[in-house]
Write a structure and sequence with these properties.
- This is 37S ribosomal protein S26, mitochondrial.
- There is one protein chain.
- With about 240 residues, this protein is mainly alpha-helical.
- The chain has a single domain, classed as minor pseudopilin epsh fold, CATH 3.55.40.20.
- The chain is built from 10 helices and 3 strands, in the order ααααααββαβααα.
Length: about 240
């Protein structure tokens, strides 16, 4: 006899009509796959994994933080992190026509120029970061505790909110000296139990299902260009800590 699991976690409502897709980036069918179908699957699995536990009533963000150090809860972390990342990604989007009317706020623009030199340089930094993610993953623009901006890349369901779960390197491939130094730096932070207070301002979805329907198997670069032109800077501006 199967137990019926309560759907504690449900799909958030986005600020735009998903039935129309996101003109210039997602056709209606592609948006249904990448948002509605994928998010439904993730939150259903998450609900099933946390039923009757202390994580049952927590939101995905708090669940991922609560399970990041638990090897026996890796599957729960993955579901929660993926649900959060996917929502962050889609909540930052709008049509190309609407996006063209928005821009970084003066406060965010100042931070971008301090770290990257210009908005165009930030765009280029995102493109360069995608080369470090082989297969599925995410690229994040983060605000660090010192208010400086940075870019973090994560494979699979990695997160920018926990040093031990950034998953910034593909350990299935060769590891360079720079990669090893990066791993050692992260391990030092983990051993010291250093807190991670990063705030994610922006996420780029590099999972193949996000672009293959509209851009094809080799269309990742075109997809990234279309993504950049669909950013809702008003949403991104609001995430900057003031």
């Amino acid at each position: 006899m199967f137990r019926q699991v309560r759907k504690i976690h449900t799909i958030p409502t986005l600020s735009y009509d998903t039935a129309n897709g996101i003109p210039g980036l997602f056709s209606p069918s592609a948006l249904r796959v990448a948002w509605t179908d994928h998010q439904t699957d993730i939150v259903s699995r998450l609900s099933e994994a946390v039923v009757d536990t202390d994580n049952e009533a927590r939101i995905p963000f708090h669940i991922l933080l609560n399970t990041a150090r638990r090897a026996d809860r890796a599957h729960v972390f993955n579901y929660a992190s993926q649900a959060h990342n996917n929502h962050l990604f889609f909540e930052s989007l709008t049509s190309h026509e609407t996006a063209a009317k928005a821009s970084p706020s003066p406060a965010l623009l100042r931070r971008i120029e301090e770290r990257f030199g210009s908005v165009e340089n930030l765009k280029q930094a995102f493109k360069e970061a995608t080369a470090t993610v082989h297969g599925n993953g995410w690229i994040f623009l983060i605000e660090q505790p010192d208010k400086k901006l940075d870019i973090v890349s994560s494979h699979n369901a990695g997160t920018p909110y926990h040093f031990g779960r950034q998953q910034s390197l593909d350990l299935a491939g060769p590891v360079s000296e720079d990669d090893l130094a990066h791993l050692q730096k992260l391990q030092h932070k983990i051993n010291a139990k250093e807190k991670n207070f990063n705030i994610a301002l922006l996420a780029l979805n590099l999972w193949q299902h996000a672009y293959i329907l509209d851009f094809g198997i080799a269309g990742r670069e075109d997809y990234i260009e279309a993504w950049w032109r669909a950013l809702d800077w008003n949403k991104i501006n609001a995430r900057l800590y003031n």
